[in-house]
Design brief:
The chain is an alpha+beta fold. The chain contains 9 helices and 9 strands. The N and C termini lie far apart (about 185 Å).
Length: about 375
């Protein structure tokens, strides 16, 4: 054999050795399990990592994924108890716990889970009406998971969770549901509006009530304070008038006026009489002295006013200048009554004396305020 033949033989031997090693050493990824068959019969399950098998005798037939898997199934028509067709799509969360059973107990466990899910879902929803189906997702999920977990246990599969992705009723039912939902919302809106108006009316009425009460209390307090102020003002005014009357009365007793004082007072009052708006013309008698003399003779007989006085009389003791309010009011009333009686008696006596003793003098012209022709203005 020449050198070329030897080289080819060496190469073939190397290739055979590589092929044998490839068939002997098998690497299984993490969370996977390899099912090994020997001459078509189950031999062993390879764990994750490096494994050695008999080449050309043992064969890794299946590689099973041990992780939790999620499978979404397309929508399936389901008839409810009230004969309405709804479309329901589901999502299944499952995990292979026994690779041997998942390989040899069922041909295709994903398809088996899908069909089992659809049949179980039809059984569960068939006993519910549409409204119960739409509002009982948790109950449907729990019942469906229990049935699937029990049925898939012998397949080496554990169903962890089942979820209903959507429940779609027919378009006509959707339209009716939307109308009903709209009506319910409008009803709630009307109720809430009425409740708001009711609360607003109640609050407004309570506010008006409180305002009226406060206004009434304020008016009452104002009237009370005004009445108290009027009472105190009247009391102070009465006290002032009483003191003024006492002062004037005391001054009259102290001064002891005579007829000359009365004549002087008459002269002082004449300009004030002429100041009236209706007094356009004032006539002054030519014999003013005789008029004053006649006025003095008229007042001669007035009680309590002498013709001549010797001098100031002894001062009358008036008592305390700040008496009690009740005492002041009583004294004021008595003083006013006495003054009115004295004035009335003096006027009556003067009139009586004038009628009996005095006759009008010839040529005397009484003063007048009638604004006639030929009158002269006051001096």
């Amino acid at each position: 054999m020449d050198g070329v033949g030897i080289l080819v033989l060496i190469v073939l031997l190397v290739l055979f050795a590589v092929a044998v090693m490839a068939k002997t050493i098998r690497i299984v990824p993490q969370a996977r399990a390899g099912i090994v068959e020997r001459f078509g019969k189950y031999k062993a399950t390879l764990p994750a990592g490096l494994n050695v098998v008999v080449p050309f005798v043992d064969k890794v037939r299946y590689m099973i994924d041990l992780r939790e898997q999620v499978v979404s199934f397309p929508p399936q028509p389901v008839i409810t108890e009230d004969n309405l067709v709804v479309s329901i799509d589901t999502v299944i969360y499952f995990q292979v716990t026994d690779p041997i059973s998942a390989t040899y107990e069922i041909a295709n466990y994903i398809q088996a889970v899908e069909q089992l899910t659809m049949t179980t879902l039809r059984n569960i929803v068939g006993g519910m009406d549409l409204e119960e189906t739409l509002t009982s997702r948790d109950a449907i999920n729990s019942r469906l998971r229990g049935v699937l977990d029990e049925a898939t246990g012998k397949w080496g599969i554990r169903v962890n969770r089942v979820e209903l992705k959507g429940i779609d009723p027919p378009p006509s039912i959707k339209d009716s549901m939307e109308k009903q939902m709209r009506a319910d919302r409008e009803k709630r809106a009307v109720i809430l509006t009425a409740e708001g108006q009711r609360q607003a009316a109640i609050l407004t009425a309570e506010g008006s009530k409180q305002s009226a009460i406060l206004n009434a209390e304020g008016a009452r307090e104002s009237q009370i304070l005004r009445a108290q102020a009027d009472r105190e003002s009247q009391i102070l005014r009465a006290q002032g008038e009483g003191q003024a009357i006492q002062t004037v009365f005391q001054a009259i007793h102290d001064g002891r006026p005579d007829q000359s004082l009365l004549a002087y007072q008459y002269l002082q009052m004449m300009p004030k009489i002429a100041e009236g708006d209706a007094n356009k013309v004032w006539i002054v008698p030519s014999e003013i002295g005789k008029a004053l003399e006649g006025l003095g003779s008229t007042m001669n007989s007035m009680r309590g006013i002498p013709d001549d006085v010797d001098g100031p009389a002894k001062r009358v003791d008036m008592g305390s200048t700040v008496p009690d309010v009740a005492t002041i009011e009583a004294d004021n009333r008595r003083a006013l009554a006495d003054t009115h009686s004295a004035v009335e008696e003096a006027i009556a006596a003067a009139q009586e004396s004038e009628r009996g003793t005095r006759s009008p003098a010839a040529g005397d012209v009484p003063p007048t305020t009638d604004g006639g022709a030929g009158s002269t203005p006051p001096q």
